[in-house]
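Researcher: Re-running this chain for the archive, since the previous output was lost when a drive failed. Same request as before.
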Amino acid sequence: MDPKWNEDQPIYRQLRDRVVAMILEDVLTDGDALPSVRNVAAEYRLNPLTVLKGYQELVDEGLVEKKRGRGMFVNEGAKDKLLHAERQRFLDKEWPKVIASINRLGLDAKELLQIADSNTDAGGDE
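Model: Regenerated structure tokens:
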């Protein structure tokens, strides 16, 4: 996890988002233990309650489960659940902005798809 925090969002939320990214990137997979609250708090000089609040959001979302005395673990299917939610969020929030920009700039959708395909074929990330 990156130890840098931005001031635009509460730290517990940033911590939650970093764990989500780790799940989406397969750094953490089904059944894996999350780093302990105590270790994360010590490593990043955070209040343990801040770490716990970030982890609790993951529990509330059904992505992680608490096992008393053992820690917190990634639930089975957490990545699929996240992908579904992130895709829906993109379609609801981001895609309309993208379409508006395409239309405003007079870009051709077919040409954009060809460019995207050629970047994918060439190993580009864009």
